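hey so u asked for the seq, here:
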Amino acid sequence: MTLNSVGTSTLISNESNTSVRDRVTQFLDEVNTLKDYLKTATQRGFNGSEEGSLAGDVAAQSILSKMGRLTTEPISGFGDQPVYLAQLGIKTELDGRLTLDEASFERALEENPEIAEALFASQYGSDDPGIVVSGLPFAPPKLGHTRSFMIPTQRHQQLR
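ran it, structure tokens below
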């Protein structure tokens, strides 16, 4: 995309359900690969099994624990309501791996074509055209917290 002048435009994505499903499947594959690695690397070596290279590593254990909660914690920052992975047909199997129920996924996209974007992009915003919501990739705005945002007139506005 090339910006040639200042103005207002509407961008529409023509991404197919198949390409969205492929992105979600790739995301799940990456999550499962990382979970498998961390499970092996953080093994304590009990009952004759070999100790993992990250056994006792608090940071690795914390990441693994957070990954275990992916399906139970909401994804905030996507519109007014939080999105749960289960709404997209993503479920946790008995072995802890995440899988995609394709029929549920297709139904979710029919009901709300943008819902899969909750995995890939935040949708923070404001109905007030004078307020610009911003954040950094590693520190996005948090719902329910008061933040200051710069508005075009160079005034500060409090947003809850």
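The radius of gyration is 20 Å. The mean pLDDT is 78.
lmk if thats what u needed
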